[in-house]
Write a structure and sequence with these properties.
The protein is an alpha+beta fold. It is 16% helix and 24% strand. It has helices spanning 42-48, 98-101, 152-155, 161-171, 187-191; strands at residues 2-8, 17-23, 30-38, 65-72, 84-87, 90-92, 113-114, 135-139, 144-145. A hairpin with an 8-residue loop joins strand 1 (2-8) and strand 2. The radius of gyration is 17 Å and the shape is globular. 32% of the residues are buried.
Amino acid sequence: MHVTSSFAAFNSSDELKPYQFDRRDVGAKDVQIDILYCGVCHSDIHMAHNDWGFTHYPIVPGHEIIGRVLSVGTDVTQFKAGDLVGVGCMVDSCRTCSPCQNHLEQHCEQGMVMTYGSPDPHGADAITQGGYSTQIVVDQHFVLRVSESLDIKAVAPLLCAGITVYSPLRQWGVKPGDKVGVIGLGGLGHMG
């Protein structure tokens, strides 16, 4: 276990407060990441305020994570210490059901594991805790390489707002010159 410093919501109305918790050990297929930046998504605020009615406190929000690899498990071949990487809103899934086999882990029949607020399949009676923390341990399948040429503090929102706008544009074959509408003036609107 790795003692991790973070900021957590302890109830639906107070401000985030410092919190320490134990991150799981690095498993054979895991990547341990030193978090450099984490974007603030409105979903983080919804979870902290229990707007959806399923928050378990204390909760460490944050799912737009950019950081450097600290260590990797013995079966990890795509990443090494020092690599710049990102983690979005998911950190695990069964990877055996039909949606998972077709790169649609968000539709996992057994339930995707969110970066925070999901039962942690690697920890007894624990929930996943997010990126408003110093480090995170994630299965390599849910880690993305980030180009060193980018402004890394500006990259974090791409992992939620960015992909949320990009995905339907790609899905529907939008090309230069096409007209589209993006609803929202926050992160999605700005990314669009």
